[in-house]
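Sanity check record (used in CI):
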Amino acid sequence: MITRTITVLATTALAATALSAGTATAMPTDFHCTAGDLDTNLVYGGAGAGQRYAAVQFTAKPGVTCTLPGSLPLDLVGAHDVLIDNQARDDAPNVRVSEGSPAYIPLHWSAIDEQQQTPLALTFTAPQEYNPRGDYSDPHVTLPWTFGGVDAAPENHTIDAGAVTPGVAPVG
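Expected output for DUF4232 domain-containing protein:
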């Protein structure tokens, strides 16, 4: 009877040690992305009949799995008469990116009016400052604007920004 009790206790202790060791090394996979978790770029999407398309493209770095909120407000630097219309609903679904998988925010504007302004950059704030390891990443992201002028006349002076969408941004 004593031998069985010792064997059961030893087996239980080994199982608990293995379980806690596995838990200690596992990284959470459901956390909001930091700016450092992603490669982020503005990508050209096409043009036609005065309409322009682009996207903010996010790609998860190797070894990273994280979540972007469906609604990620954007801002402009420069072009004081041009506005961003963040059209994503506040309850837009989150988008998970992992190990090189992409997501994007579609952008649309017009460039037909003679009164145009060229933004210097597009900015946003990443949803998280610290990753699960406790590493800090500056949440403020600035992407240089490389797509030329945007209509700045009072009747048409907006860049429409959609919800975060899984996949590669369309190129037209």
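Residues 1-26 have pLDDT under 50 and may be disordered. If this sentence no longer matches the regenerated tokens, the check is flagged for review.
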